[in-house]
């Protein structure tokens, strides 16, 4: 179960456009800042139910300014567009890392369907 997997390293790259997360089961994932911003676990993006989820566009150039620990279960990210809500849990990173291609493809298709751009 993902909750038993713990991060061993969380590293923001110098360009502030990639966050790397490595886990104690030897899985590691590199997350683009844009991906993390548009899939934010915040209520602002996810809403309070599946029918309230928002499509966030125009974040291709967003960067991560800050990574703050939240207890022993998550981090809070602060982006250059000043978005700073939502806790990125270890489960978030595991699930989105393992399913990155599908999540990203669904996001790009959603943008296209709505006539929005990255």
Automatic annotation (TrEMBL):
The entry's keywords: Iron, Metal-binding
GO MF entries: metal ion binding
InterPro entries: GBBH-like_N, GBBH-like_N_sf
The organism's place on the tree of life at top rank: Bacteria
Transmembrane helix among keywords: no
Residue ranges of domain Gamma-butyrobetaine hydroxylase-like N-terminal in the record: 10-93
Descriptive protein name: DUF971 family protein
Organism of provenance: Cohaesibacter gelatinilyticus
């Amino acid at each position: 179960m993902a909750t038993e997997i713990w991060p061993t390293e969380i590293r923001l790259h110098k360009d502030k456009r990639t966050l790397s997360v490595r886990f104690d089961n030897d899985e590691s994932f590199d997350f683009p800042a844009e991906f993390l911003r548009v899939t934010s676990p915040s209520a602002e993006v996810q809403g309070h139910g599946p029918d309230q989820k928002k499509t966030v566009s125009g974040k291709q150039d967003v960067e991560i300014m800050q990574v703050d620990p939240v207890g022993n279960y998550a981090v809070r990210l602060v982006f250059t567009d000043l978005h700073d809500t939502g806790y990125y849990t270890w489960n978030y990173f595991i699930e989105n890392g393992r399913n990155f291609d599908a999540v990203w493809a669904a996001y790009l298709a959603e943008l296209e369907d709505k006539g929005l751009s990255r």
